[in-house]
Design a protein that fits this description.
single chain, 254 residues, alpha/beta, Rossmann fold, 8 helices, 34% helix
Length: 254
């Protein structure tokens, strides 16, 4: 394998002895530069565990992860993660701009460069006018936009997203899906996104990676050949979309 991200024979077991639980059996896949790949699978199949291993937040029990050909041990400098629980990943005492700027302090950037990156990222997610507010003054959807802006300002080679829209309402979820497609195009992002929502995976992805139940393995990798630009109404109503989401649903069920 020789993609931007290479995952080879990765597995993870929690605990040991009689109390051991193998969440991820053996998973291998690649992500190419500029791709948006979604991971789906049955509830409890180890999707989040897999993503934490990829991020370097959790050491796998076996197998390997490499980014740009370099083994991942600890969180790589050019990787960012957007978590599901946005309310716990923002600093309530910092403003929106302060939250977005916070991780840039270790990037060797001048104050002016950090300010420009924050402004650009907030513009991408439509929050320029909220820069001086605090997270607790924003809706859940706006807070998650701040988390996405923070990841974008960091300019990672790879952005990992762990069910990032699971805690918002349906309309906000649709808006955030379209936001990811928009900023991915504008920022030339490579994205690996975990979701339990089959429709979301097909709508967003270039490829959908379908996992089995725990201990998970890769059941199938489906190429999503939907034309762009994608639209919440037109795309989801197309025959290709319906065929693909049915195929993913059948793979997960069986």
């Amino acid at each position: 394998m020789n993609g931007m991200l290479d995952v080879s024979g990765l597995g993870h077991t929690y605990g040991s002895g009689d109390k051991a639980h193998t969440a991820v059996g053996e998973v291998s896949f690649t992500v190419e530069p500029g791709e948006l790949v979604c991971i789906v699978g049955p509830s409890g199949c180890g999707k989040s565990t897999l993503l934490r291993c990829v991020a370097g937040l959790l050491e796998p029990s076996k197998g390997s992860v490499s980014l740009h050909g370099n083994a991942v041990s600890g969180v790589p400098d050019d990787l960012a993660v957007v978590f599901q629980d946005y309310s716990r990943s923002l600093l309530p005492w910092r403003t929106v701009a302060g939250n977005v700027e916070f991780p840039l302090r270790d990037r060797g950037l001048s104050k002016a460069q950090r300010r420009d990156r924050v402004a650009e990222a907030l513009s991408w997610v439509g929050l320029s006018k909220a820069a001086g507010k605090h997270p607790w003054q924003l809706s859940g959807g706006m807070q998650q936009r701040v988390c996405i802006a923070r990841a974008l300002a960091y300019r990672p080679a790879l952005m990992l997203m762990d069910e990032p829209f699971a805690s918002v309402d349906a309309q906000t979820r649709a808006d955030l899906e379209d936001l990811v497609l928009k900023v991915r195009e504008e920022a030339d992002m490579t994205v690996l996104l975990v979701t339990h929502d089959i429709d979301e995976s097909v709508y967003l992805a270039d490829r959908v990676l379908v996992l089995s139940g725990s201990p998970s393995t890769v059941v199938e990798t489906l190429k999503v050949d939907l034309p762009g630009p994608r639209d919440q109404i037109t795309t989801r109503g197309s025959e290709t979309f319906v065929r693909l989401r049915t195929e993913v649903a059948q793979l997960i069920r069986h």
